[in-house]
Design brief:
The protein has helices at residues 3-16, 48-53, 68-75, 79-87, 90-94, 195-210, 215-226, 231-253, 261-281, 287-311, 318-344, 351-377, and strands at 28-34, 39-46, 97-102, 108-110, 114-119, 132-139, 146-151, 158-163, 171-175, 184-185. With 382 residues, it is of the alpha+beta class. The chain has 2 domains: 27-192, no CATH class; 200-377. The strands form 2 sheets. A 6-stranded mixed beta sheet has the order 5-6-2-1-8-9. A hairpin with a 5-residue loop joins strand 3 and strand 4 (108-110).
Amino acid sequence: MRPVHLFVVFLCLVGLAGPLAAHQLRPALATVSFEPGGTVKLRIQTNAEALLAGIDPKHRNTNDSPRAGEYNHLRGLPPEAIAQAFAGFAERYAEGLRLEADSGDGQWRLLEWRYRGIEVPPVGDTRLSRKSLIRYQGILPEGAARVRWSYAADYGDSVISFTQPGQQEPVSYWLTGGEPSPEYALDRVVQPRAWTAVAADYLQLGFVHILPRGLDHILFVLGLFLLSRRLKPLLWQVTAFTVAHSITLALSIYGYIDLPSTVVEPAIALSIAYVGIENILTRQLHAWRVVIVFLFGLLHGMGFAGVLTELGLPENEFVTALVSFNIGVEFGQLAVISLAWLAVHRIMRDEARYRRWVVVPGSLGIAVMGLYWTVERLGWLG
């Protein structure tokens, strides 16, 4: 690959990255509770404004959607207006909330939902999406022995939790692309999932949060990679970053520290800009770089914690999920570094050409996007 092509690749990668954080679509958090007498209660925490605006889940960033204007308008409406608008949408939405029950004859029957209302938080910082609580209720077919859940792909991903009387911990699954959940038995108290299954889920979640969804974290890791042509300095930086974000991820999840995302997210963006700018201004890895990377890692750890806080961690396998998520994040970072090395390792042998055609333009793109995200997350773009 010629140097000019590498330059184009870097600019394209940066150009694909849009404003993040407040504009990312998170999975819907659904809880299905089976009550005595066959009553089923469904509670869904999700972004009601995105549903009403018809934001396609393929647009992980709401600003990338052609309906972003309508979505941003809805975010500024009071709870009463959103509730009124959603009442007219509730029946259509229910069509994508598929809970099927089998009474043992192999015939799966779809539950019919009755809309029970929505609780919308008051208008706050419009840079942040609101999580509304939507309620439905249904009745199980007589003799139902097992159920399965699926959430329409048109609405995005979902995290489904099943609970019933006598069950100490919910049984939860992360579902994507409209896939159905595993079958859930109703004729016995279901034991919590094995730690290996929980670990696999959160390992995947941590990896995906970096690659491909964590564009801000990807650019930060690329910034670390660009200044280090040798493995040892790069490992020092990555190790400092890993230790730091592991510390604040754990402390945040356990509730020892709690900074609002309106502070954390702009600071993360600023850290990206700093790394890009320093790459342009210096040719060597100075001792303070590792210290600064460690401090920035503390910020990124709080950003990771924000994701886990929204999704929740299983109480019976809390530590397993936390550690697995962190390992998944590390695998994602190593994958980014590996892909970057494969793309540029040939030209890295020529220091002058590597800096001219890769380090400087790549770092410039990273710095520009970091500064843009900083301004955008501070709300200075209106």
